[in-house]
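User: Sequence in, structure out. Go.
Assistant: Echoing your sequence, followed by the structure tokens.
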Amino acid sequence: MLRQFSYLNTALLGQFISALEGGQVGARSQRDTTKRDRSAGANLRVAHGEGSNGSESETQQEFVDTPAAQFDRLLRFAAADPDALHWIDVSQPDLEFANATRGAMVSWDCEVYTPEIVQTFGASSGTGDLLRTLGQMIPAAQQLGLDMEGVPDQGTVQAMGNFMDAVDIDQVIVGDRDDTAWKIIAKVLPTHTLEPVDGPLQLVGKVRRVVPAGTWHPLVNLPGTAMGSREQRRAQARQAPAPGQEKNYLEGPAVELDLLAAFA
């Protein structure tokens, strides 16, 4: 199968391959020497030996261990011994996700999307730049006599842009299917994103936590939201969001992943 990656965390992949293979494969080269025997008129491939009456040509190739090749080997390890890797190819999500534990590897074919709040305020949304640009345009708009009713003043708009940069909201994706209530939530790192992580994709990752049914997981973590005791955070997770705020949370059951790959 030829895979087209939308996302591939090469650092995490390298850790997995290194653990499975006892190290990582570096670049290797292969040298081929062809000797033409003038008397026989035939080409002979030789690995070593002394020269004789005739001519020689040499070809050298270098092979590099690419991330795509490493990922293919990881899948071969998983197919050969899924129990050793705690690997779950999800085909019955209601059963398999319910029994998944922290550290298990899961692979699931699902529909992937970016939640609306992350599209608007996420690190890659460009909202901060847009707000600063708007702030710079306000004085000119006022001088031109444009209707500015309801538009915040320049200082407020620029402060909002600076706030967006300061909070640095993570880029988060959600994967789901129509035949189950279970979902996947995962953070995507811009340095490992190859193209938009959206649409029908295969998600592969390591389980970070399971979000039980009846609890809520925030899609955006603002500074200070992780403060408080574990009991306080668990109690907060069991409380439904305020009316109108539901779209800012993911309701369980769900699995949070350290995302390794997303591909078609």
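User: And one key feature?
Assistant: The chain is about 30% helix and 30% strand.
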